Amino acid sequence: MNNSTSNYNGLKAHSSYRMKMKMTRRRRQRQRQRQVGGRGGRRSTVQVKVKKLQMLIPGGRGLKADRLFLQTADYILQLRLQVNVLQALSKIYKL
């Protein structure tokens, strides 16, 4: 009976190992497809980054990339101005 239990555990471990290897193989294939895609692969990663940027910038959703970059530059300048104003206020009030 002890032998059958060890065989069962061995089969179970073997099948989980095979499943893990299949998943690893699929992951590698997806990565290769993204890399081999050449320009298309790069474009998809750029598109993902543009989507993330659209979520970060107020009013950025729905903007095309060129307008989004201009909006991003304006937003960065606005944030810098706010930091400068807050620093000046903290010096005045010695905070």
Automatic annotation (TrEMBL):
- Residue ranges with Basic residues bias: 15-33
Q: Which UniProt keywords apply?
A: Transcription, Transcription regulation
Where is the stretch described as Disordered? 1-45
Report the domain of life of the source organism.
Eukaryota
GO biological process, any = regulation of DNA-templated transcription
Q: Which organism is it from?
A: Prunus avium
Instruction: Report which gene this protein is encoded by.
Output: LOC110753180
Name assigned to this protein: Transcription factor PAR1
Q: Which InterPro entries match?
A: IBH1-like (IPR044660)
Q: Tell me the organism's taxonomic lineage.
A: Eukaryota, Viridiplantae, Streptophyta, Embryophyta, Tracheophyta
Which PANTHER family is this protein grouped with?
TRANSCRIPTION FACTOR, TRANSCRIPTION FACTOR IBH1-LIKE 1
